[in-house]
Amino acid sequence: MGKTAFIFPGQGAQSVGMGQDAFNAVPSARDIFQTADDKLGFSLSSIIFNGPDEELKQTANTQPALLTTSMAYLEAIRGKGIKPDFVAGHSLGEYSALVCAGVLTFEEAVSIVRARGEYMEAAVPGGQGSMAAVLGAERQALAELCSSITADGHVVELANMNCPGQIVISGSAEGVAAAAERVKEAGGKRAIPLEVSGPFHSSLMKDAASRLGDKLETATFHSPAVPVVANVTARPVEDASEIRGLLVEQVYSPVLWQDSVEWMIAQGVDTFVEIGPGSVLSGLIRKIDKSVKVVNVNSLENAEKLESLM
């Protein structure tokens, strides 16, 4: 029998109205939205369901909004008899994976990711940092190009190893612009600027990581019921204190998504269930390995049909 992994999306997957179908029809999903509102002290659910888009896109709102919506869809598939052998999430999605694995309670996680979003927004003044998706470049060659630009005084680093032919770079606005102009030197075709509020997963986020570390010290971490494949190492992490340390590192380190997926496939995973809005991760996985099955739970309809989709 093949194995199954539950995977959870990160920033960029959000859209106004996400999760409304689960809220309307699944009492335990409605409780998730209510818990988020109560814990954060404002109506996050109103921003999720009604927008405006500009407000949902603010990192400090996006991060708890995506966690909440992903957990609502997870509630919608509880009782379907499908249990994961591994869980993983892309960047912010790692917190959804940790809640799924019982490492953090949802209440603690939603408070943490709200703070994480605030710290990340505050770390670098608006307009001074950016990110871009580089298509077609070789990882090593792109890393060397970024190192040489950084050595010249403009920080730019590899941020997300998403799939073959797609690597996201992050850093100062000048550094990312310089690398984007020179991607052909690394075998790249082009660079596409990303709409983000800061240079996530770069060394410019170390101040945010330090503040997050203080916040995580007060949180209770439990041993995972299911192996959680960490972004920083692309390997499962089981020790609660190690998980805490890796979450701090993750803020300024590359997300090894392609490596994580390849490792899970090597362990026998042949079905990935993406739980949460959008289908970004499903697209990446198809580019990593066309032979595996990818199922999306990004609507109540898909949640209800999950068994037949497997």
Automatic annotation (TrEMBL):
It catalyses: holo-[ACP] + malonyl-CoA = malonyl-[ACP] + CoA. GO terms for biological process: fatty acid biosynthetic process. The keyword Glycoprotein does not apply. GO terms for molecular function: [acyl-carrier-protein] S-malonyltransferase activity. One of its GO terms (cellular component) is cytosol. Signal peptide: none annotated. Belongs to the fabD family. SMART domains: PKS_AT. Keywords: Acyltransferase, Transferase. The active site is at S91, H201. Residues 7-305 form the Malonyl-CoA:ACP transacylase (MAT) domain. This is Malonyl CoA-acyl carrier protein transacylase. It comes from the Bacteria. SUPFAM superfamilies: FabD/lysophospholipase-like, Probable ACP-binding domain of malonyl-CoA ACP transacylase. Its EC number is 2.3.1.39.
